[in-house]
Amino acid sequence: MDTRTLARTAVAVCAAGVVSVMAMAPASATGNASVYTNGTERGRVNYWSGTDDFRVSDTSCDGRSVYTEYQRAHGSTVRLHHRGGCGTHVDFHRAFAGGQTIKYRVCVDVPVARDICGPWKRDTTG
User: Fold this and answer.
1) How far apart are alpha carbons 38 and 96 in whole angstroms?
2) Is residue 83 helix, strand or coil?
3) How far apart are CA 54 and CA 32, in angstroms?
4) What residue spans of the chain are helical by DSSP H?
């Protein structure tokens, strides 16, 4: 093979690799919300409106669990618990009708005291 043919082949192989890596990358969340204490993130929720999935993450090694609350179109508040511990997350799938207003937040569960919650984040279901 001459140098030009080799160069074209290398470019084609690299391009194919980039395309396959892009196809395997997970979709980005459409929204997220966090809770902080003393400037440190303690928990996070990611929401994917296209699939109605929530990912609840415990981002701090403080010995406390985290949970997410969500509410759709003036409905009741639903709580999604995560007790996995420091540096872990859990995914929750829901099946909402599209185009509804939804709000969600993440909280730290504080036994014997008021829980610490981040601000509500608003989104629209897919």
Assistant:
1) 35
2) coil
3) 9
4) 3-24
Q: Which residues contact 46 (CB under 8 A, 6 or more apart)?
A: 29, 31, 32, 54, 55, 57
C-alpha distances (whole Å) from 107 to each of 37, 50, 64, 80, 114 are 11, 24, 10, 10, 10
pLDDT-derived band at 13 (thresholds 50, 70, 90) equals very low
**Secondary structure of residue 48 in the 3-state scheme:** strand
Q: Which of 58, 56, 54, 57 is nearest to 102 (CA)?
A: 54
Let me know: does 74 contact 57? Beta carbons within 8 Å: no
6 or 41, greater pLDDT: 41
Q: What is the mean pLDDT of residues 67-76?
A: 93
Strands (E), the chain: 31-37, 40-48, 53-58, 66-72, 78-82, 89-93, 101-108, 116-117, 121-124
